[in-house]
Amino acid sequence: MDLLRKKSVEQLASESTPLKRTMKTFDLTMLGIGAIIGTGIFVLTGKGALTAGPALSVSFLLAAICCGFAGLCYAEFASMAPVSGSAYSYSYLAFGELIAFVIGWDLILEYALQAATVSAGWSGYFNKMLAEFGLHLPVELTAAYGTTPGVTTYFNLPGFVIVLLVTWVLSVGINQTKRVNDVMVLIKLAIIVLFIACTIWYVNPANWKPFSPYGIYTFQPGSTQPMGIVPAASIVFFSFIGFDAVSSSAEETVNPNKTLPRGILYSLAVSTVLYIVMTLIMTGIVKYDQFAQFVEAPVAGVILATGMNWLAFVVNLGALVGMTTVMLVQLYGQSRICYAMSRDGLFPKFFGEVHPKYHTPFKGTWFFGILTALAGGLININTLFELVNIGTLSAFIIVSAGILWMRKTQPDAHRGFRAPGVPSTPICSIIFCLILIAGLNWETWLRFAVWFAIGLAVYFLYSMKRSKLNPNNASESGTQQVES
Questions:
Q1: Which of 13, 85, 274, 373 could form a disulfide with 89 if both were Cys (CB 3.0 to 4.6 A apart)?
Q2: Residue 384 CB coordination number (10 Å)
């Protein structure tokens, strides 16, 4: 029983794919920005400001540095093995099947929970926009059960519907997906630039004092949640999740050796600058401790403080568009990882079947799309977003460690892009990830351990026997050689 059987670079590179190669650098950059800019600005800045004060901009920078180091590692792996599967495929290459399965299992949870969480935020902004036109959905259908204290709700209908619409776009073809995403990202960026241009004149530098009221890391009396720059970075790290989904598009990318690294790094750079500028402006207009009044819609609260009510509608539109692109990229990444795991025999063939007309993993896309829509509609998952963070940080650690291992064991393997500063770069990535994990609470660790245990059970009871690298399945998978 070889739990660490590996794929070679040659095996990964030679795998044929029925997916269509149409994505270019611009599309990948838009895909990354679409995933990154959304919930972070329109939702998490409120909780982040209460946790770190004006130093929230430093928290965003800390999270961005962590993602930047990890992004360089992802870029190198993407240029070595331009295949679907992201961290799952890279782990298969570096550490073997068991680690790869665990990371794939981890990423499935990450992408589904983030898309479901974002659908809840999307629903809140959608209901506010309807109210501006005098329209109101039955309150029972505006949120999952027990989401709003003192209000009886049963089902998040808007969140459910938007996830299904996004799933439909993803299922009918990559050309349609990239066009929809490109247009929505450009609209979102235009609205953010408009917000910055209109509100920067209302900044009062006195609101930035004290700049870091809670320091780097501290506990307030009577609170179970840590406060300060590092805990806030652990929260807003959620904002940057998604750039790793860019590497899932490898088999639908033109010249992936060059375009994948560029798309990953360009999207990170643009998003980081916008996040820092936005948080400085927002905490400069509204004192950090006042964000408690509008923690669910912080950007709207800042606009009300300026008196420019006309801008509120535009920003609400930007929030809807921004969060839609986040869901689109997350569900896209999830479907491609399931496709890769199915192709390797670790998941049922159902998830790897490609539609002959649309050239997408049609059934798998709809399967997880419906599950995610139901999760967002029925479950109060706002308390679980930190579980997404710990899952992603774990994947970053594995990918970064993989670069160290591959540089040592396969130094001469072809690399279209080489991460600079190795071994310092992956080591820094691992250290920053561990720092952010330390900022999460113990409930998050417990939930992650439960999901991890379920994944191990699935692997040993199903996936290990059906793996294409299992010698007993050699007749099905051809004469694949297992790297020892």
A1: 85
A2: 18
Report d(CA 340, CA 88) in Å as an integer: 8
| Phi then psi dihedrals of residue 219, to 5 deg | -110, 130
- Residues of the chain with confidence (pLDDT) below 70: 1-2, 9, 11-19, 146-150, 222-224, 250, 381-385, 474-484
Per DSSP, the three-state class of 219 is strand
Do 237 and 246 touch, CB atoms closer than 8 A? no
pLDDT digits (tens, 9 = 90+) for 172-199: 877 777 788 888 888 888 988 999 999 9
Length of the chain: 484
What is 23-471's CATH superfamily? Amino acid/polyamine transporter I (1.20.1740.10)
Dihedral angle of Cα 387, 389, 390, 394, to the nearest 10 degrees: 140
Contact criterion met (CB below 8 Å) for 381 and 113: yes
Residues whose CB falls within 8 Å of the CB of residue 343, separated by 6 or more in sequence, listed in order: 15, 352, 468
Contacts of 429 (CB under 8 A, 6+ apart): 66, 69, 70, 72, 73, 396, 397, 400
**Residue 49 one-letter amino acid:** A
Give tens-digit pLDDT for 90-138. 888 888 899 999 988 988 888 888 888 888 888 888 888 888 788 888 8
Q: Are 128 and 319 in contact (CB under 8 A)?
A: no
The reported pLDDT for the residue numbered 482 is 36
Please report, in angstroms and rounded to a whole number, the separation of the first and last CA atoms in the chain.
12
Tokens coding 362: 């049609």
Residues 6+ apart with CB under 8 A from 107: 86, 87, 88, 333, 334, 337, 391, 395
What pTM was computed for the model? 0.80
Query: Rounded to an integer, what distance in angstroms lies between the CA atom of residue 279 and that of residue 55?
Result: 9
* Closest C-alpha to 383, from 120, 163, 37, 51: 120
Distance between CA atoms of residues 166 and 287, nearest Å: 37
User: Would the CA dihedral through 133, 138, 139, 140 be positive or negative?
Assistant: negative
Element (H, E) at 461: none
For 317-360, how does the pLDDT look when each residue is reduced to its tens digit (9 = 90+)? Answer: 888 888 888 888 888 888 888 888 998 889 888 888 888 887 78
Per-residue model confidence (pLDDT) at position 223? 65
Largest CA distance in the chain: 72
Q: Where are the domains of the chain?
A: 23-471
CA distance 188 to 144: 27
> What type of residue sits at position 269?
A
Q: Report how far residue 391's alpha carbon sits from residue 395's, in angstroms, rounded to the nearest whole number.
A: 6
Q: Mean pLDDT in the chain?
A: 83
Q: Residue 333's pLDDT is what? A: 82
Render pLDDT for 370-381 as a digit per residue (tens, 0 to 9). 999 998 888 776
Q: How many CB atoms lie within 10 A of CB 442?
A: 8
Query: Do residues 250 and 256 lie in contact, with contact meaning Cβ atoms separated by under 8 Å?
Result: yes
